[in-house]
Write a structure and sequence with these properties.
- It is built from ten helices and twelve strands.
- The strands form two sheets. The protein has a seven-stranded parallel beta sheet with strand order 8-7-6-11-9-12-10, with helices on both faces. A five-stranded mixed beta sheet has the order 1-4-3-5-2, with helices on both faces.
- Strand 3, helix 3 and strand 4 form a beta-alpha-beta unit.
- It is elongated, with a radius of gyration of 22 Å.
Length: 289
């Protein structure tokens, strides 16, 4: 049966020891991420927990400060957790602050099952697939995924060396997109390229050295867009493997954009082209030999 909504905790119900088993589990996830507990991710704040529940991600256990639940949206979330039978334990404020990644703790931490996606989901409708090749900064990865979802991308390959999309910083950057956007992790970039080519997608590389402005390429067809690392961009062999290398024209002295911003520019151009008829003068992709 559903648990009753969490009311004000009794003093003896509040966990005050940092050696408590729940606190140790939360700390392991905070410090070691995926290595802390197989198959789990650490969520902080009501917004991310709500996003997880909305995406039907299983929330396993929740820790809240004594003050959590006083605001209307927090009370509604506590009721939803109780309805789903999710255990909610209360932590002392000092213990909660020691676990928080934020300067001011929002007073809520949760452990959730990592979502699993079928690779087939990346290729629904007219595919628009992102390939993040070794993107190591979790905040930038989160921003890229958020842009991808907003622009209607169908999924992403996050190749080996790419940050964990369910790490705290990546989740904050994506605001929960990683719960919803189908993604496949851990393949080599070369293997990811083989997978999209086998499905007949054109491969477009975002490359500051590209010869073609991004808005002069026809992106209405099934497309994979390849993004490189923050500092050095795409490896030369990956850029050379693309059908087209496109650039975003910029006014000097600016030479590059944050990868999340660049992804937004390219992917929203694809979305625009797919909404409206386009002249036949757009450049067609070249098939790599």
């Amino acid at each position: 049966m559903p648990r009753p909504p969490a009311g004000p905790p009794r003093a003896d119900d509040v966990i005050r020891s940092r050696d408590n088993p729940l606190v140790r589990r939360l700390r392991a996830l905070k410090e070691r991420g995926e290595r802390g507990a197989a198959g789990l991710a650490l969520l902080e704040g009501a917004r991310l927990v709500q996003e997880a529940l909305g995406a039907n991600v299983e929330v396993v256990e929740v820790a809240a400060s004594a003050r959590f639940g006083r605001r209307p949206h927090e009370a509604r979330l506590a009721e939803e957790l109780a309805r789903r039978g999710v255990p909610l334990r209360r932590l002392d404020e000092h213990v909660m602050r020691s676990l928080s990644e934020l300067e001011t703790s929002p007073g809520l931490l949760a452990m959730a099952r990592r979502p699993r996606f079928e690779e087939e989901a990346l290729y629904r409708d007219v595919p628009l697939v992102v390939i993040a090749a070794g993107l190591q900064n979790p905040g930038n990865l989160g921003a890229l995924l958020r842009s991808a979802e907003a622009a209607g991308a169908t999924g992403a390959y996050l190749t080996e060396g790419t940050a964990d999309p369910l790490s705290w910083k990546a989740l904050r950057g994506s605001m929960g997109t990683a719960f919803r956007l189908p993604h496949v992790r851990g393949l080599s970039a070369r293997t990811a390229l083989e997978r999209v080519r086998a499905r007949g997608l054109q491969v477009v590389a975002a490359d500051a050295r590209g010869a073609l402005p991004y808005d002069e390429l026809d992106l209405r067809a099934a497309t994979a867009v390849l993004f490189g690392t923050e500092g050095s961009g795409l490896a030369a062999e990956l850029a050379a493997a693309a059908d087209r290398r496109v650039r975003i024209p910029m006014r000097p002295p600016v030479e590059s954009l944050n990868v999340g911003v660049a992804a937004g520019v390219l992917l929203f151009e694809a979305a625009r082209q797919r909404r409206l008829p386009r002249p036949r003068s757009l450049a067609k992709p070249r098939t790599a030999s």
